[in-house]
Amino acid sequence: MKVLYNTSLKSYNTFGIDVKAKTFVEITSEKELIDALDQFRDEDKLVLGGGSNMLLTKDVESVVFHLNSKGKEILKEDENTILVKASAGENWHSLVLWCIEKNYGGLENLSLIPGNVGTSPIQNIGAYGVELKDVFYSCEAIHTKTLKKHTFSKEECKFGYRESIFKTTEKGNYIITNVTFQLTKKNHTLNTSYGVIEEVLTQKNIASPTIKDISDAVISIRQSKLPDPKEIGNSGSFFKNPVISEKDFQHFITANPNAPFYKAGDNYKIPAGWLIEQCGFKGKRFGDAGVHAKQALVLVNHGEATGKEIFELSQKIQQTVFENFGIKIETEVNII
Length: 336
Ligand code: EPU
Prior knowledge:
- This protein is of the alpha+beta class.
- Helix content is 25%, strand content 28%.
- The longest helix is centred in the C-terminal third of the chain and has 19 residues, at 307-325.
- The chain is globular, with a radius of gyration of 20 Å.
- It starts with a strand and ends with a strand.
């Protein structure tokens, strides 16, 4: 375990916000995690994985636990399926590429999502028709107070749209140390129904795609719409797509007949990116805080924006969307 004091977190969050951590603990194994939890037993903690889903608005007084444990192992396999266990500190996209290279199917639609393996179940990451829950088998986590290990099954995690118990009833109680995925070795279930994936495959004349073809398509779609955090600070979707009732939807669609929407059970999901674009924010810049020009759901740091400036922009967007549409949009990103 390595402990640093008054250290900048700029390179540890994908927004590239330059705030300081009073105490920063680098953890590379489960044993180190348990030791660190013991040592900092009475202090508030902030767990940092890839730092891809948070906006840091001020210096961090809590002890920052940076989980950097590495490792992938095959737990079990038969002719058709395989269980792959990956440590929390593994980079998400590297895991996806490793699986594709070995022809393990299931993660391809989730290519190029920033962040690490350990935080993927917390918000049930999802893209292009697939969510983490579709490939999740279990995860191990250490209780922050009792220091006991618990293995969570898929049912226990209570996954929902960008939700899990790690964001609700068990918030702050556990630190995930590894995740096990159930993948396919052959007869892969391909998810090509998301319109834009089909378009790319058709353009490339691919009639029977492999998992690599799908991954390549997702990578090119993401690269064309979403900014690369290495080039321009961002945290992917800053807001969740709002889900509204049938009654509110009827009202909304009558007033906005051209709005895109998806059915979500008995309710309707409206793309927040569309609502934000309609309010005129797409591509706008306020100092170094801005709204991405190709996807209005993504807020960006053009260089030296502070977390507070980005947070203030997000509040202005929420307020304007509410004034124009009567719809509340919630942040997907954790504001710290
Ligand atoms: N749209 C606009 N203007 C915009 C952005 C989107 O009109 O600026 C419209 C699009 O034309 C389309 C609809 O909104 O009709 C949906 O857009 P898109 O397919 O880009 O998806 P999204 O709903 O905006 C969600 C996820 C993304 C994920 C994509 C693809 C959430 C909060 N976001 O975005 O996730 O990549 O679907 O599956 O659910 C992330 O979580 O960081 C993320 C990037």
